[in-house]
Amino acid sequence: MMDRKEHAQRRRLFARGFSKTNIKHNWEGVMREKIQLAVAKIAEEGKAGEPVDIMKLCTLMSSDISSHLLFGESFRTLEKGEVNEYIRVLTNALKGNGIGAELPWLRATGKWLPFQTTRELWRTNDLLADHASIAAEKGEALTDGDVVCEIISFFVAGTDTTAVSLTYLIWAVLKEPTLRDAIEEEVAQLDADYSDADIESKCPLLNAAIEESLRLCGAAPGALPRVVPAGGIDLGGFFLPQNSIVSTQAYSMHRDPELFEPPLEFLPERWLAESKNRVSDAGRAAMTPFGAGSRTCLGMHIAYMDLRPAAAEFFRRCPGSQRAPSTTEESMELENFFLIAPRAHRCEIMLGAEGLR
């Protein structure tokens, strides 16, 4: 949606539903239920000393949360233990749209190429629309097409993004046993009926680890194209003509050595207020895992309310967990089709000797 006025109107329509207060009041219990089920599934699959693919379970959890929030009923993929056709199609859509954003001409022609793989990549929006077809009200309500488009967007934005962010967070922490132990000790102090607000206020190290994980492994670190408005604009000493396509992308900004030193190391302490090497105001301004300005991700509060409780529940109930031998730096190398994923498309861990707490 390029028209700023139309975008502002649409954003106002959804803003209240995505507010932090509304999410906490209406959906925290639902989200907590799915998170607890996901951690129980991790324990069940790993109880015999077998490796557990947490990326798969994080994806099932996120899809169940997103579907419940969008449709009022979960897809129940966690209970079934596998993704449904909707999510399979969605995965293809993410790849196709990611490539199409960089190569628009390929988006236009790809669906007509005589190869099943390429046709699936660019015809998935049609298939998703079939899944999400909903009747709209008359008057100023959204049209059928608008509703379908928004449902697709919200589901895409709320499923793989959260799943991959949580996967990389757990992986990064398990790489450092001392950090893992400190976070486990921190979350162990929470009451049994802890809330997201408790984690936010009482678990500074976990919150810092989440921020650092989003810095290095935010789900959408690539280019976010924008069109220069009429008349053009002077920016940083350069004139950008109207209708030029420009982009910012978090990947480079989050690795700027002038803002984050050392830029490639996972150092949660840089986000702690008492740290001598804490992130500067300029560094915080450059942190854009959810975008920036008027186009900031509407679902940011949902994402944090997924990440904080899910991470806390995992480190509370699965102490001493480790990376499985199959999970290496190479297998977790970023693969980017607009949204990132591990190159191996899995992240296996082994539960600690204590098992589920």
UniProtKB/TrEMBL annotation:
GO MF, one annotated term: heme binding
Q: Which UniProt keywords apply?
A: Heme, Iron, Metal-binding, Monooxygenase, Oxidoreductase
Pfam families referenced in this protein's UniProt entry, alphabetically: p450 (PF00067)
Q: Does the keyword Metal-binding apply?
A: yes
**Where does the source fall among the domains of life?**
Eukaryota
Q: Which cofactor does it need?
A: heme
Q: Which Gene3D superfamilies has this protein been placed in? A: Cytochrome P450
* InterPro entries referenced in this protein's UniProt entry, alphabetically: Cyt_P450 (IPR001128), Cyt_P450_CS (IPR017972), Cyt_P450_E_grp-IV (IPR002403), Cyt_P450_sf (IPR036396), Cytochrome_P450_monoxygenase (IPR050121)
What is stated as this protein's family in its record?
Belongs to the cytochrome P450 family.
Q: Mind telling me what this protein is named?
A: Putative sterigmatocystin biosynthesis P450 monooxygenase STCB
